[in-house]
Amino acid sequence: MNKRTKPYSEASEQNREPILGVLRFEFDSPGTVLEIGSGTGQHAIYFASALPHLTWQPTDMEENLPGIRTWLEETQLPNVREPLALDVNAAQWPVSQADFIFSANTTHIISWDAVERLFAGVGRVLRPGGRFCLYGPFNYGGRYTSPSNARFDAWLKARDPASGIRDFEALDRLARRHGLCLTADHEMPVNNRTLVWIHTRGECADDC
């Protein structure tokens, strides 16, 4: 029987170390991390290996789970769970509660309706006091932060008009609607950011 080929993402290899630096700080206590959109599974393996105090729950669309499993089978990390199928558009998610939530490069590849459902799901699942870290490119004040991001956005919209780089302000308004209060905006390499929200018990206060 032929061994399954592991999926591979060059971008995941390049951005994993800067993201890890943020997660070490933001996910500093023991708990379970729900990763939304695990892709190849490379991030799950790398972060779980470097952060043994966390239990990592990878998720993605059903068709991507076999690829994630190839990484899990090779590494056999005790703190990575079996990947689960998660569609952000679904009314019911396969995880009912998480201490932390992480997602990388997702909001610009899905529709705005799906982004709204993603944040609604985070608001349902993330425990009070838990943090949501979202990595990717974002616009500020309706403007691109670099010419390369403008080109990337044009490429995204040519591929799928419903996708595209999201405005930070729109994401933050959406987060507040679901009780998520912005606590950090980390600058990352290659014109990316990591946004961090903490889950409050109710609607986010204006001065949070």
UniProtKB/TrEMBL annotation:
Which spans of this chain does the record mark as coiled coil?
A: none
Q: Which domain of life is it from?
A: Bacteria
Q: Write out the transmembrane intervals.
A: none
Question: InterPro entries from the entry?
Answer: DUF938, SAM-dependent_MTases_sf
Q: Return the protein name.
A: Uncharacterized protein DUF938
Q: Which organism is it from?
A: Thioalbus denitrificans
